[in-house]
Amino acid sequence: MSGNAQKKLYIKTWGCQMNVYDSRRMADILAPLGYRESDSPEDADMVILNTCHIREKATDKVFSDLGRLNKHKQKKEKRGEKMLIAVAGCVAQAEGDVIMERAQYVDMVFGPQTYHELPEMIIRATGERVVNTDFAVESKFDSLPQEHVPQGVTAFLSIQEGCDKFCTFCVVPYTRGAEYSRPVQQIIDEARRLRDSGAKEITLLGQNVNAYHGMAPNGRTMGLAELIAAVAEVEGVERIRYMTSHPRDMDQDLIDAHGNIPKLMPFLHLPVQHGADEILKQMNRKHTADDYRDIILRLKKIRPDINLSSDFIVGFPGETDRHFEELMQLVRDIGFGTSYSFKYSPRPGTPAANMQNIVPEKIKDDRLQTLQNLLFSQHREINETFVGKAVEVLTDGKGNRPSQLHGRTSHNQAIHVTCDPALLGQIVTAKVTSASATALTGEII
Ligand code: 5AD
Ligand code: SF4
C-alpha cells in the first residue's frame, strides 16, 4: 500500500465521551497516512473497535463484532487485499492478551494511552501481531497531531485523563491510569482551532475533570475554574461545559464559576453513585450523602436554575432495603433533570468484585426499576417547567421532521425546534411548546 493512496478507515466507538474524543483523535492521526473514515466496516482497510470496559457484556459485544469483522476480512483476503483489525480502548487495556488469544485474526490491540503511536504500530502490524498496553511515560497529548477532522458546532476537548480515586467498583484507574492534566496553553490552542473549524460549544472532558490541575504558561498550577475562565476568553466559543466531575473536587471556585462565567452553561453532571453513607464508604467514594447535598445547596445559591445530572448504581454488595431507601431519599431531596442509573456489575480486578453479600439479580432489577420510575418522573417534571418559556438553543442536526432542527438548550436538554433548516449551527431563541422526560419541542421566536 502506498502512503498516499486513499484508504478506508472504520471506527466503532463504545462508552464515554472520552472514547468519542479518542476516536476523533485516532482519525486525526491516521488522516495524513491516507485513511479516510467510512461508515461501514465492509471493505475497510483498517477497522478500529474503540471499546469500553466499565460494565459487563462489553467484552462479549466486542467478540461478537470481531466475529462479523473476520468474515469481511476473509472476503478481502480472498481478493488479495488486507484488512487490519484493531481493538483499542479500555477492553484492550484490560484484556489485550485474552483478545489476542481468542481472536487470532486481530492484528493490533492497544490501550488508551498509546494511540499516538498508531503510525508505528501499523507498520509493525504488517509483519507481526501488535499488543501495546503500556502507560507511556510521556503524555500522548504531547505527540498528537493537530485536528484534521472537524468536530462540528459542538466539540469535545479532553483536558484531563485517568483517575486516582479508586472507587471500589470501577475499572477506570486500571484502564486509564493515573490522573494527568494537560497544560493550559495546549488546551487553549486546541480550543482556538476547534473554534476556527466551527465549534461554538466546547465540552471539557476528563474522567475526573474537576481534579484538573494543569500547568499555566507562567509555571503556576491552574484549577478547572480558572481554566474555564481562560477558555471563555476565546472569542467565538459561546458555550462551555465540563464532564465528568467528582463531588470531592467540587471546590468553591468552581461553584462560583457557575455564577461568574456567563459562557459556562447551567448544567452539571455530578455522579453521586449512592445515597447511603455505608454504601458510599464501601464504594470508597470519600464523601457522604450530606456532603453531596451541601454541594448542591451551595451551587443552587449561586445558580438556582442549574440542571443537575448524576450516575447511580443499585445492587452494590451489601445494599439492603434501608440503604436503597436512603438512595431514593437523596434523589427526592435533590431532583435531577437527567440521569444514568445502572445495576452494579462486578469488574474483574476491582476490590468490590471480591465483596460478600452479593445482591440477587432480581432485587437489582426491581430496585433499578423503582429508582428509574422516580428519576424519569423528575426528568419529566423538570422539563415541563420549561414549557411556555424562551430558551437559547444551539442547533446541531436534523430534527424529527424536515421542518425541525435538533439542538441543545443552555440547560443541556435535547430539543426539536420548528425553524428554517438554514439556521443549523446557530444559537437561536425558541419557545418551548411541549416536554417529555427526554426532550423538549419548541418553535423559533
Ligand atoms: N457497575 C455498574 N456501574 C458502574 N459504573 C462504573 N463502574 C460500574 C460497575 N462496576 C457506572 C458509574 C459511573 C458510570 C460511568 O458507570 O455510575 O459513574
Ligand atoms: Fe471510576 Fe470513581 Fe474514578 Fe469515577 S471517580 S473514574 S467512578 S474510580
TrEMBL record:
<keyword id="KW-0819">tRNA processing</keyword>
<keyword id="KW-0963">Cytoplasm</keyword>
<feature type="binding site">
    <location>
        <position position="163"/>
    </location>
    <ligand>
        <name>[4Fe-4S] cluster 2</name>
    </ligand>
</feature>
<dbReference type="InterPro" id="IPR002792">
    <property type="entry name" value="TRAM_dom"/>
</dbReference>
<dbReference type="InterPro" id="IPR006638">
    <property type="entry name" value="Elp3/MiaA/NifB-like_rSAM"/>
</dbReference>
<keyword id="KW-0408">Iron</keyword>
<comment type="similarity">
    <text>Belongs to the methylthiotransferase family. MiaB subfamily.</text>
</comment>
<keyword id="KW-0808">Transferase</keyword>
<dbReference type="InterPro" id="IPR038135">
    <property type="entry name" value="Methylthiotransferase_N_sf"/>
</dbReference>
<keyword id="KW-0411">Iron-sulfur</keyword>
<dbReference type="InterPro" id="IPR058240">
    <property type="entry name" value="rSAM_sf"/>
</dbReference>
<feature type="binding site">
    <location>
        <position position="16"/>
    </location>
    <ligand>
        <name>[4Fe-4S] cluster 1</name>
    </ligand>
</feature>
<keyword id="KW-0949">S-adenosyl-L-methionine</keyword>
<dbReference type="InterPro" id="IPR006463">
    <property type="entry name" value="MiaB_methiolase"/>
</dbReference>
<dbReference type="GO" id="GO:0005829">
    <property type="term" value="C:cytosol"/>
</dbReference>
<dbReference type="Pfam" id="PF04055">
    <property type="entry name" value="Radical_SAM"/>
</dbReference>
<dbReference type="InterPro" id="IPR020612">
    <property type="entry name" value="Methylthiotransferase_CS"/>
</dbReference>
<feature type="binding site">
    <location>
        <position position="167"/>
    </location>
    <ligand>
        <name>[4Fe-4S] cluster 2</name>
    </ligand>
</feature>
<dbReference type="GO" id="GO:0051539">
    <property type="term" value="F:4 iron, 4 sulfur cluster binding"/>
</dbReference>
<feature type="binding site">
    <location>
        <position position="52"/>
    </location>
    <ligand>
        <name>[4Fe-4S] cluster 1</name>
    </ligand>
</feature>
<dbReference type="GO" id="GO:0046872">
    <property type="term" value="F:metal ion binding"/>
</dbReference>
<dbReference type="Pfam" id="PF00919">
    <property type="entry name" value="UPF0004"/>
</dbReference>
<keyword id="KW-0479">Metal-binding</keyword>
<dbReference type="InterPro" id="IPR007197">
    <property type="entry name" value="rSAM"/>
</dbReference>
<feature type="domain" description="MTTase N-terminal">
    <location>
        <begin position="7"/>
        <end position="127"/>
    </location>
</feature>
<dbReference type="InterPro" id="IPR023404">
    <property type="entry name" value="rSAM_horseshoe"/>
</dbReference>
<dbReference type="InterPro" id="IPR005839">
    <property type="entry name" value="Methylthiotransferase"/>
</dbReference>
<keyword id="KW-0004">4Fe-4S</keyword>
<feature type="domain" description="TRAM">
    <location>
        <begin position="384"/>
        <end position="445"/>
    </location>
</feature>
<feature type="binding site">
    <location>
        <position position="170"/>
    </location>
    <ligand>
        <name>[4Fe-4S] cluster 2</name>
    </ligand>
</feature>
<dbReference type="InterPro" id="IPR013848">
    <property type="entry name" value="Methylthiotransferase_N"/>
</dbReference>
<comment type="function">
    <text>Catalyzes the methylthiolation of N6-(dimethylallyl)adenosine (i(6)A), leading to the formation of 2-methylthio-N6-(dimethylallyl)adenosine (ms(2)i(6)A) at position 37 in tRNAs that read codons beginning with uridine.</text>
</comment>
<dbReference type="GO" id="GO:0035597">
    <property type="term" value="F:tRNA-2-methylthio-N(6)-dimethylallyladenosine(37) synthase activity"/>
</dbReference>
<comment type="subunit">
    <text>Monomer.</text>
</comment>
<protein>
    <recommendedName>
        <fullName>tRNA-2-methylthio-N(6)-dimethylallyladenosine synthase</fullName>
        <ecNumber>2.8.4.3</ecNumber>
    </recommendedName>
</protein>
<feature type="binding site">
    <location>
        <position position="90"/>
    </location>
    <ligand>
        <name>[4Fe-4S] cluster 1</name>
    </ligand>
</feature>
<dbReference type="Pfam" id="PF01938">
    <property type="entry name" value="TRAM"/>
</dbReference>
<feature type="domain" description="Radical SAM core">
    <location>
        <begin position="149"/>
        <end position="381"/>
    </location>
</feature>
